[in-house]
């Protein structure tokens, strides 16, 4: 307990916490991101309705406008969609899927990127040349194009029923495997600096294995830039998932994300039911913007040249 309190006291007295509290935009972004993520995680308990419980849906409640309009229903604050689902609840549940895809895709990118970057930077030579050329080739292909290619291959190889069951995992893999080069290049650059320092040379002298040196000695000292890139890539991954779902190749309609909700609402945008697509779009923008602002602050806070 005392150790935990001591760690908390050191954190509150650190430069990072001081930088955080001195930036009103960062504090506001953190609050907004916390609300968005908290609402998504706690959706089953705090959402006004369960929009995916077919037994509770009423088609007679379809296309109800927001509650503050003349024909609005106070039961549905942001109105309902074409199936009578509460838009606010659908946004909260949809954000769960979008954030799940974003976090898992970033975790996959980080895992692959760190592995490749450590191997390339520490081993060097032919290994470095081959791995970095693969990363360079990957950087020439846009993320959406790679994701569409992977999704198309899976759709052609598997029956539709099976594809719908694993669609979420396909999207996570497609986005995650597309973004690892940025992590690999950053880790490689940091590893090239760290591998010539005294503590690494001392580890070699006492006979530690190459893999142990990379994992226990080099890796902890290159995680700072990785954390910054991961924060920025979370927003990018959420946007990529929304784009794929809007194009109809993302998660299935039974697990709608924010992108799926925007695509559904887009069909009714010009018929007057603007709220079905506008509110999920606003939620997506607010979520991604708050995460990106936090990533920008973290990049500056961890940059020793700006301290």
From TrEMBL:
Q: InterPro entries attached here?
A: BP-dependent_transpt_permease (IPR050366), MetI-like (IPR000515), MetI-like_sf (IPR035906), OppC_N (IPR025966)
The residue ranges of the ABC transmembrane type-1 domain are 95-295
Instruction: Give the transmembrane region(s).
Output: 25-47, 97-123, 135-154, 166-187, 218-240, 274-298
The UniProt entry, under Pfam families, shows: BPD_transp_1, OppC_N
State any GO BP term from the record: transmembrane transport
**Which compartments does it reside in?**
Cell membrane
Does the record bear Transmembrane helix in its keywords? yes
* One GO CC term on file: plasma membrane
Name of the protein this chain belongs to:
ABC transporter permease
According to its UniProt entry, this protein's organism is Falsiroseomonas algicola
Q: What is the lineage of its organism?
A: Bacteria, Pseudomonadati, Pseudomonadota, Alphaproteobacteria, Acetobacterales
């Amino acid at each position: 307990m005392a150790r935990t309190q001591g760690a908390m006291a050191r954190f509150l007295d650190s430069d990072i916490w001081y930088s955080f509290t001195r930036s009103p935009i960062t504090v506001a972004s953190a609050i907004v991101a916390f609300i968005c993520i908290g609402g998504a995680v706690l959706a089953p308990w705090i959402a006004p309705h369960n929009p995916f419980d077919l037994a509770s849906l009423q088609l007679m409640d379809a296309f109800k406008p927001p509650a503050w309009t003349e024909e609005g229903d106070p039961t549905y604050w942001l109105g309902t969609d074409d199936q009578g689902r509460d838009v606010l609840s659908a946004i909260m549940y949809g954000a769960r899927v979008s954030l799940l895809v974003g976090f898992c895709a970033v975790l996959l990118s980080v895992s692959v990127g760190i592995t490749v970057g450590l191997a390339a930077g520490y081993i060097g030579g032919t290994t470095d040349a081959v791995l970095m050329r693969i990363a360079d080739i990957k950087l020439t292909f846009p993320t959406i194009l790679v994701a569409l290619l992977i999704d198309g291959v899976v759709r052609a190889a598997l029956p539709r029923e099976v594809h719908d069951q694993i669609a979420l995992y396909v999207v996570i893999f497609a986005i995650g495997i597309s973004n690892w080069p940025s992590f690999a290049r950053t880790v490689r650059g940091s590893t090239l600096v760290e591998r010539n320092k005294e503590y690494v040379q001392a580890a070699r002298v006492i006979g530690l294995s190459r893999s142990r040196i990379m994992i226990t000695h080099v890796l902890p000292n290159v995680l700072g830039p990785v954390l910054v890139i991961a924060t920025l890539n979370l927003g990018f991954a959420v946007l990529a998932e929304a784009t794929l779902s809007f194009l109809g190749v993302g998660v299935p309609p039974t697990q709608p994300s924010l992108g799926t909700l925007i695509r559904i609402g887009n069909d009714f945008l010009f018929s007057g039911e603007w709220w079905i697509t506008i509110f999920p779009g606003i939620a997506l923008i607010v979520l991604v913007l708050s995460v990106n602002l936090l990533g920008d602050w973290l990049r500056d806070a961890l940059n020793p040249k700006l301290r």
